[in-house]
Amino acid sequence: MSDILHIAKGLSVQPTCVLVLGARTEAMLNWLFSLTTTQVVLVEPEPAMFEKATLLHNAKGSPESVVIKHGVPAFEAKQKSMRYFASNVPGFSSVLPPNVIKSIRPALEFTEQEALTIELKPLLQQFNISEGRPCLLISQLNGAEQQCLNTQILNAFTHVVIQSSLKSVFGESKPVEKLKKELTECGRDYLELAESMPPFSNFVATKKVNAEQALNYYSQRLQHKEVKSALEGQLSVSQNKTEKVSEELRQAKQQFQAASQQKDEERKQLTDELQQIEHQLQTTKQQAAEKQKQLAEELRLVKQQFQESGQQNVEEQKQLTEELQHAQQRLQSINHKIAEGDDKINGLNDELASVRKLSEMHLKASETSNRLNLSLQADLNNLRAQYLEKLNEAESLTNLVNELYVKLKHAANYYHSLEDRASTTELTGNTRG
After folding, report:
1. Burial of 315 per CB tally in 10 Å (0-12, 13-18, 19+)
2. What dotted CATH number matches 3-207?
3. Main-chain dihedrals φ then ψ at residue 201, nearest 5 degrees
4. Could you read off the pLDDT of 156-186 as tens digits, one per residue?
5. Which of 42, 120, 50 is nearest to 86 (CA)?
6. 256: which strand partners?
7. I need a surface site. Which of 9, 43, 284, 348 has the fewest CB within 10 A?
């Protein structure tokens, strides 16, 4: 991560608008697109970085909160285009001639091009950039900031982070001298932080924070900690409940699946038995019909023989009567078996209907469990989103306290140095006297 990006991320206040003059690195682009609640305006003069920013903008679904403009920034453009020296390595292009940088980095190659000019003054009005709300300016133009910065620009932003160089790396003049002069004339206090890659330095200027704001911040921080603890407790309880309900649902699902499988097997078995009984009943009915037909034929033959003979003794008539009764008893027995088979079929049909009702009850229970699981999952996602939001707010407030501590420490050191000087002056006056 570059030093200027580290500084921008470490600011304690979340800006409502960020104006970037030259992204220079892909890490800076990724950070800008992560600011979903901030209006980002990127003025990118370098063709290679503009192409990467456009590709990333399309990949993110072209968010309206990010505006990308291709051209060289200037407060007020006197001409529509100007000369631009594009480097083969991103981050080393400039509108100023690369006189010294070529000797420092011989591998760099530059191509002179014509680049459009982007006026910054209309952008301040278009995106309502003013010191009345948190606004951040980031500039990495390799000396070209000389044509962008003035009193109106520096006073319009509550936070200013500018990268400049102590030596004339691009062009002939030293940009740091003019930058310090502009900041001094605007009455802006600033810090000069050396870059890890000399001779570049970063200048950071922020609006002063009074004691009342610091106390309000500390109070808000305590409140956020309490809210965070409460949300963490709710999240933990919700997770435990969700795990418990999930386990119960899993067990219920397993039991339902086992019961459904068992009922399916029982239903299949009952269906097979019912088919076998129906087959046996049909066979028995066929046999009974054939037997009844045979007995009727035998009875008809007996009656015919009785009529033909005309003379039968009492014993033969008695025997025939007994045979007839026996045949009737057999026929009644067969009819009784047929009735018992019908009763058994009706009983099996009742059992099959009860099994179907039980299956429908289990299906309704499963649907109710699924709806409960979806409701619990939605509540859990809502709690997680609230927790992440409060966590981000706590992190932002912590950064503000750290920044306030650094400034108060600098003020205390400066006050002690003034006291030491006053004491020395007093001692010197007394000695002379």
Report:
1. exposed
2. 3.40.50.150
3. -140, 155
4. 898 999 988 877 788 767 778 888 888 888 8
5. 50
6. none
7. 9
Neighbours of 149 (CB within 10 A): 24
What are 143's two structure tokens?
Answer: 């000396």
Distances (CA, A) of 290 to 94, 224, 285, 294, 360: 113, 94, 8, 6, 45
Query: Three-state SS across 351-371?
Result: HHHHHHHHHHHHHHHHHHHHH
Of 357, 349, 366, give the one whose Cα is nearest residue 263: 357
Burial of residue 169 (number of CB atoms within 10 Å: 0-12, 13-18, 19+): buried
Lookup: tokens for 223: 């409140």
328 CB-side CA count, 13 A? 6
Bridge partners, 87 (sequence order): 110
- Domain ranges within the chain, ordered by starting residue: 3-207, 215-408
Evaluate if pTM is beyond 0.90. Answer: no
For residue 95 the two structure tokens come to: 């509108």
SS (H, E, C) the chain: CCHHHHHHHCCCCCCCEEEEECCCCHHHHHHHHHCCCCEEEEEECCHHHHHHHHHHHHHCCCCCCEEEEECEEECCCCCCEEEEEEECCCCCCECCCCCCHHHHCCCCCEEEEEEEEEECHHHHHHCCCCCCCCEEEEECCCCHHHHCCCHHHHHHCCEEEEEEECCCCCCCCCHHHHHHHHHHHCCCCEEEEECCCCCEEEEEEECCCCHHHHHHHHHHHHHHHHHHHHHHHHHHHHHHHHHHHHHHHHHHHHHHHHHHHHHHHHHHHHHHHHHHHHHHHHHHHHHHHHHHHHHHHHHHHHHHHHHHHCCCCHHHHHHHHHHHHHHHHHHHHHHHHHHHHHHHHHHHHHHHHHHHHHHHHHHHHHHHHHHHHHHHHHHHHHHHHHHHHHHHHHHHHHHHHHHHHHHHHHHHHHHHHHHHHHHHHHHHHHHHC
> pLDDT digit string (tens) for 56-99?
999 999 999 999 999 999 988 888 999 999 999 888 899 988 88
